[in-house]
Amino acid sequence: MPITPRPAIFCFSKTGHSRRVADAFACRTGADIVQIEVERYRFPLLWIARAIWDVGRKAAPPLLTGNIVPAQRPWIVAAGPVWANEPAPPLRSVLAGLATLEAPVGVLLTCGRSKEQSNSFATCETVLGRPLAACVSIPNDIEDTEDMDVLLSAFASAMTGRSSLGAA
Question: Which domain holds residue 56?
């Protein structure tokens, strides 16, 4: 009997918030988490200036994770923070790497503000080169609350429904 591959969540998290939300989503879906690392954001305090510079330039920095193109995943989620109203630059790198895959791709963003991050989702679709299968924005202030659970459940339903539709 062939082994069914599990979905993947490619997660970039500088402060830990995005990782905790990605972990909660993985618990709901059984997805594997692949932690994304970027060398240029490892230096204390200097990383903030570099991050702002990268956001302004719309840069997609090289990842330490290596080849992020996963083989035969039913669906993939890119998870990470919003910086200056844009997805963090490492998410651009992930989405650019996923652009050639046929698997459904969703985006899970975390943000310091409570409003929806529609510009960030549009940027993600532009970098990916196609519409997102699903997207969700989790404000930092609802972490570990029922509101977060509701949003993650709806996102999980959208992603798992997409993969079963694609398999039919």
Answer: 8-167
